[in-house]
Amino acid sequence: MQVNPNDFLPQRRPLPIIVLADVSTSMEGEKIDTLNTALAEMHQKFKDLHDTRSHLHASIITFASNAQLLLPLTPVEDVHLPTLTASGTTSMGAAFKIALQLLEDEQQMPKRSYLPSIVLVSDGQPNDEWEEPLQNLLESDRGGRAVRLAVGIGDDCDFDVLKTFVNHPEIPVVRATEVLKLMDFFRFVTMSVMARSTARNPNSSGNLPLHLLNDDDLEF
């Protein structure tokens, strides 16, 4: 009988990465193009990462006039990235609701999964009721303990909402005053997830490479 060496490797636990992406009208043009490029670069880095401790799974929730689970949690090697387009308003609260549903779906996120990284990207202010959906997300077991990262693009972004979403003394909200800084933010997200994936304890947020961020980009 032929022996498969992989049979003797420890079974990898899923490590979910969930992106909540603002695709409202104000994201048209350079912003949405840069976001698509940043997601593609991050995806390629994740595909190239080989580790026996965790298995990266990616998901994208978009929000404009409505929110939708555009990409269910999928092993990164099987992901076919959709191209995001921008239109409509900013239903951020609806995106929080979908994120909570995803976190509580044991079919997509088994109990054995590591805590997720949840990334919020926005350039505006919510147009729907968001306080209660966000509170429900933060009070959930996985949502409350997740590594939550956020970037606000431009001066019109509601940084108070983003700071409430992050709400962690070691994790700042990033202000992308220039669109190209969005690329830097996603490189930080990529390094953060990769650091967790190879850490002794991937559920710890103590491995985040905060030194990669310039102080001028932080919002407190």
TrEMBL record:
InterPro entries: CLCR, VWF_A, vWFA_dom_sf
Pfam family, one: VWA_2
Segments forming domain VWFA: 16-189
Protein name: VWA domain-containing protein
Organism the protein comes from: Floridaenema aerugineum BLCC-F46
Lineage of origin: Bacteria, Bacillati, Cyanobacteriota, Cyanophyceae, Oscillatoriophycideae
